[in-house]
Each structure stands twice: as C-alpha cells, then as structure tokens.
Backbone:
C-alpha cells in the first residue's frame, strides 16, 4: 500500500475519531444533564397529594361534615342535609354549604416524586422533591345540631301526617339574626346522595318562594300602626263576611262572618275583610314602602347559593283588587328566610337584622369562633309599635287561630297563614292546593327564638292553625325542655331580657 493511501486512511480515521470524540463530549458535557434526567424519569413518578377537606361544625363545635381516608362523611345522616349539601367524586362541593365554601374547604393539592422500581412499584425517598398538600379551612355554622335535629324530626313527622308534598322550618335568634336550624322535607342522606332525587336536595327555606297568605297581615298592620292609621283597639266592621271591591268579592276563610271587631281581633281571627280596610286606609304606596323595608321583594343576603328574592310589584302596577289582596298576603311571593327576618324585626323591637348562617372559619383549627355582632340593616318600626304588634300576636295564640301553638306556662306570639296556590297552566288559584304556615316566637315578652313552619300542599286539614302551628309548638316545646336550654328566669311572667341589638 503506497504512502498516499495510508495518509488518506489515517486522516479518515482521525476525522472519524474526532467526530466520535466530539459527540461523546457533547453527550456527556453538554447534553449529559438532559439524558440523566430522562434516565431518572424512567425510574420516577410524580404523585398528586390531595388535601384533607376542611370540616363543617355547628355553633358548639360538633362536626356536621368531615373527611376520612379521602371520603366525605356526614355523621348525622339526613339531619340538615339540604343545608350542608354534599361533595362529588372529584372532591368538589356540589350543593349547599359544601358548594358555597368549596374554595375554603377544599385546600391546596400537593405533589411528591417517588422512585419506581423494575416492577413498576413506587417508593418514597428523601432524594426527590415534594410539595405537601395544604388542608382546607374548617367552617363553623350558626346552626345548633340539637335544634336542627328537633326541626328535622318534627317537620318530617308533621309533613307525613299532613301527606304534604314538601315543607320547611327555619329557627332564628331574632336579636342576632343567626339561623339556629334550617330543615327541609322530604329528606335525603348526603352520604348516599345519588340514591335520592334532585328534588330532595332543595333547601326549601331559601330556594322556594310562595304566597305568604295571612302571615303577611301583621306587616300590613305594622305599617298602619306605625303610621297612626290604625290602633289595636280601633273597631273595624267585618261586614258579616260580605265585601266587594273593584268588582270582586272578598271573603273569609271557612266562611266566617265577623261584624265590628277590634284591629287586634282582626289579626287574632285573621279577617281578610278587616285587613283590606286597613290596607285601604294606609294606601298602596305606604304598604309597598313598609313591605320593602321589612325585606320583601329582595334577597335577605343569607349565606346560601341561589337564594330567591320573591316577587313584589311596584304599586303603580297594582290593580284595585291586587292592592286589596296584598293587604292579606295574596299576590306577592316570599321565601321562609324573608318571613323569619320580618317577624324577627317585630320580635326584637323593630330592627331588620341580616340573617346569618356563617359563624366563622379557621385554618386547621377546631376552636369555635365567638359570636359576631348583629348586622342590623335598619329600623323598620318603633319599639312602641313592636310591643303593640307582639301583644296582637299573643292574642292570636291565646284566643285566635294560633291556639294550637300554645304551650302551658309560656307566652307564645305568632300568626297562622293559609294561602291558595296559583293554578298551573291557567289564571287564578287552585282550590285544592294550599300553603299552610305558622310563625311564632318565644317567650313573647323577651323573644329568644323565631320559628317559621311552611307546609306545602297538605291534604285533609289545610289551614295553618291545623297543620303548621302544632309543628311549631312541638319544636318550641322540645327546645325549651333541652338540658341547659332556656334559663328559668325566662319563664312567662319573669323579668324581660333585652335582645342583642
């Protein structure tokens, strides 16, 4: 082989060796980190770490919702289910407080890198980075679990007895606006929510609106007394149950035929005709003004998703008969929270207080927050007017339609309501479908509780005094009897304790 050929081969070899050496240097020095990462990645797995969802507690620190091994649990079952809601398979809140406070409860996910062996199994190691999950906040409600259990049980018993389609109970502290219980019927179990219909998920105290019927009469009377139009002992002619206005006939429930009676008796016996006359004396502008001031026709602001605002047309849209009907609670729509807040204003001396469900929340803390001051929205009536209205509502329970709510040894104030439901698919009202209601507070001389009971489409007995008042009485009686409940100095006839305004 000649020298030239050897030189060419040597140069070729040198070039090849130089390329290989350069490639090796490139792979090791420049790209070495990348290929080391790829090699390590084959033996690593990133694992997501789900945070522990925060708990939901009642006002006394009793757990209403908690998480264990990634599963959401509701230890009281059906109790307060429509209020609490539930969590989906992805750990996100789907209904109720679980939905409203999902961002607080859910927490922040973490991650960890784990070593994977030849069999595909992963092992924790300190060599790899990680970011721990951050647990969700705990949420504390104003609800009292004992009151809630009583409300659920008595509503269930009463609604079943009345063969009702649905129902709701709201219990509130009239001074602070705190909601102590909120029950809905029919019930469901959030631990097995997929086994129940979506209808059973509805929190009927907040999401359903209805015509209030005679429970609204005290609002008409409140406006008339505050404006000096009517006094409790003024005589109003009930016209023996026959009265026409705007070409329409106004009648009385159960065909009652009242003659001249006092304004207080008109409330006690729930006279439609007398309340129409009070409304006429007051005027539609004033009636509308006071109804709005009491919180009707707008959302109460309670912490719950989807609250309805009701329906309250402006008075320039009222016909003569509509104005008359509104005087006794027909032709407007409300929800149970609005009614509870309005009656609380009468009970607490005249202040409309914002209803509240949230007591507070804490980061990984189970320490129960202290009571927050009442969120007083406005004064709607004077204390003097409030006292006159309370006396009227006492008379309703002592001598009138609310007698089934009476409790021996206690002064109870309250008002019944019975409203025909609007007919479906046509004008007018359905003569077979009613809303029966009762709202009461105890003790009347220093109210500590306001209890609202709404029964939708009862069968057989349909009047509020027959259907809803006994449920209210049973709830109040059981709460009064709880160990450590109302102090003995709150018994009827003893000293008055001021409300927390």
Residues:
């Amino acid at each position: 082989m000649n020298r030239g050929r050897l030189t060419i081969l040597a140069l070729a070899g040198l070039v090849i060796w130089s390329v290989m050496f350069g490639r090796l240097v490139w792979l090791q020095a420049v790209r070495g980190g990348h290929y080391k990462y790829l090699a390590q990645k084959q033996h690593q797995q990133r694992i997501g770490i789900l945070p522990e969802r925060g708990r939901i507690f009642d006002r006394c620190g009793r757990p209403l919702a908690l998480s264990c091994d990634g599963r959401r649990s509701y230890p009281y079952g059906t109790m307060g289910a429509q209020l609490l809601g539930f969590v989906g398979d992805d750990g996100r809140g789907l209904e109720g407080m679980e939905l409203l406070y999902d961002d607080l409860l859910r927490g922040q996910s973490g991650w960890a890198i784990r070593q994977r062996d030849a069999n595909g199994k992963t092992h924790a190691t300190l060599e790899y980075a990680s970011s721990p999950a951050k647990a969700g906040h705990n949420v504390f409600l104003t609800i009292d679990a004992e009151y809630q259990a009583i409300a659920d049980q008595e509503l269930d018993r009463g609604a079943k007895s009345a063969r009702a389609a649905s129902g709701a109970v709201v219990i509130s502290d009239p001074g602070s606006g705190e909601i102590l219980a909120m029950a809905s019927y029919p019930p469901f179990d959030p631990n097995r929510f997929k086994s129940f219909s979506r209808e059973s998920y509805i929190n009927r105290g907040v999401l359903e609106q209805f015509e209030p019927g005679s429970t609204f009469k005290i609002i008409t009377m409140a406006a008339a007394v505050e404006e000096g139009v009517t006094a409790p002992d003024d005589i109003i002619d009930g016209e023996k149950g026959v009265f026409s206005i705007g070409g329409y006939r106004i009648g009385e429930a159960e065909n009652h035929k009242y003659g001249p009676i006092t304004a207080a008796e008109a409330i006690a016996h729930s006279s439609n005709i007398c309340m129409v006359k009070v409304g006429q004396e007051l005027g539609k502008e004033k009636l509308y003004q006071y109804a709005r001031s009491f919180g009707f026709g707008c959302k109460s602001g309670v912490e719950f998703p989807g609250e309805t605002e009701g329906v309250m047309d402006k008075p320039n849209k009222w016909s003569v008969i509509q104005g008359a009907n509104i005087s006794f609670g027909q032709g407007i729509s409300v929800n149970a929270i609005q009614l509870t807040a309005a009656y609380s204003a009468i009970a607490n001396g005249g202040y409309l207080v914002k209803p509240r469900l949230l007591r507070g929340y804490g980061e990984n803390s189970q320490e129960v927050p202290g009571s927050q001051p009442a969120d007083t929205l406005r004064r709607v009536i004077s204390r003097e007017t409030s006292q006159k209205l309370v006396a009227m509502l006492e008379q309703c329970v002592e001598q009138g339609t609310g007698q089934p709510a009476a409790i021996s040894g206690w002064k109870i104030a309250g008002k019944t309501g019975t409203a025909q439901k609007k007919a479906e698919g046509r004008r007018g009202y359905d003569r077979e479908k009613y809303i029966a209601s009762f709202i009461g507070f105890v003790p009347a001389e220093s109210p500590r509780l306001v209890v609202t009971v709404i029964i939708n489409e009862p069968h057989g007995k349909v009047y509020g005094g027959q259907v809803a008042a006994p449920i209210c009485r049973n709830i109040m009686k059981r709460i009064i009897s709880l160990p450590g409940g109302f102090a003995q100095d709150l018994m009827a006839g003893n000293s008055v304790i001021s409300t927390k305004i």
Q: What stands out?
A: The two ends are 114 Å apart (CA to CA).
